[in-house]
Design a protein that fits this description.
By secondary structure, this protein is mainly alpha-helical. Helices cover 80% and strands 0% of the residues.
Length: 232
C-alpha cells in the first residue's frame, strides 16, 4: 500500500519524468496509428471493392499478420535501420522515428483487416447503385469509408491500443534511452527489474486508465454505428 500511495502521488503531483514518458508514448503511438491508417484504410476499402486473382491470399496474409510477433518486426526494422542496413545512413535507429516505423508495421494489418470487414457488407448493398450510376472507384471508396466511419474508427482505436501496449519492437529499435526513447511499457519493464516499483506502478496505472478509456470509446462508437445502421 505504501508503494501504491507513492505511485498515486507521482501521478497527481504531475511528476516531470512520468509526464515526459507518458507524453512520448502517446506521441509515438498516435503517430504510428495515423501513418498506418493513411495507407491501411484506403487499401482495405479497395480490397472490398475489387475482385482479382490473389485477393484471397492477400486477405489471409493480412489476417495472419495481425498476430505477427512484435520482436520479429523489431528485428526486421533494426536490420533495415542499423549502420550496415539499407536505411542506415538516415541515422534513425534508437530514435522515436524508428519506434513509429516499427509500430506502423504492426498496426497496418489490424486496421486493414478491420476496415475490410467493415466495408464489405456496405459494398454488397451499394454494388447495384454504384453500377447504375457508373461511379468511379474513388467515389466508391469515399462513400464506403464515410458510411463505415464508425466501424473504421473502431479499427483505428484497436490499432492505437496495440501500439500503446507494445514492448518488444520498440525496445529493440528504440533502445529504451532515458529522455529520448523511453515509453511507458519499456519503462515499466526496466524499473521493475531495478526494483523501482513506485514509478513502474504509477505508469501501470496510467497505462490501464488509457486502455480502459480507449475501450470505452470503442464500445461507444460500435454502439453508435449499430444504431446508425438500424436507422439508415
Amino acid at each position: 500500500m505504501e508503494i501504491f500511495n507513492t505511485a498515486l502521488s507521482l501521478i497527481f503531483s504531475g511528476d516531470a519524468d512520468l509526464l515526459r514518458i507518458v507524453s512520448l508514448s502517446l506521441q509515438v503511438s498516435l503517430s504510428a496509428t495515423v501513418i498506418a491508417s493513411l495507407f491501411a484504410i484506403p487499401f482495405g476499402a479497395l480490397l472490398a471493392i475489387l475482385t482479382f486473382p490473389g485477393k484471397r491470399i492477400i486477405l489471409v496474409l493480412s489476417t495472419s499478420l495481425m498476430a505477427l510477433p512484435p520482436v520479429v518486426v523489431g528485428l526486421a526494422v533494426y536490420l533495415l535501420l542499423s549502420r550496415s542496413g539499407p536505411l542506415g545512413p538516415l541515422g534513425l535507429l534508437f530514435t522515436p522515428t524508428a519506434m513509429v516505423f516499427a509500430q506502423s508495421i504492426l498496426i497496418f494489418p489490424i486496421v486493414l483487416s478491420l476496415t475490410y470487414e467493415a466495408v464489405t457488407p456496405l459494398q454488397r448493398d451499394y454494388k447495384g447503385l454504384f453500377k447504375a450510376l457508373d461511379a468511379r472507384k474513388t467515389l466508391q471508396l469515399r462513400t464506403l469509408i464515410w458510411d463505415a466511419r464508425f466501424a473504421v474508427s473502431v479499427a483505428l482505436l484497436a490499432g492505437f491500443g496495440r501500439a500503446l501496449a507494445e514492448v518488444g519492437a520498440v525496445i529493440i529499435v528504440g533502445g529504451n534511452i532515458n529522455g529520448v526513447t523511453r515509453v511507458m511499457t519499456t519503462t515499466i519493464a526496466l524499473e521493475t527489474s531495478k526494483g523501482n516499483l513506485q514509478l513502474a506502478l504509477a505508469l501501470g496505472v496510467v497505462l490501464v486508465a488509457i486502455a480502459i478509456s480507449v475501450n470505452l470509446v470503442t464500445h461507444a462508437l460500435a454502439h453508435i454505428g449499430q444504431k446508425y445502421q438500424v436507422t439508415r
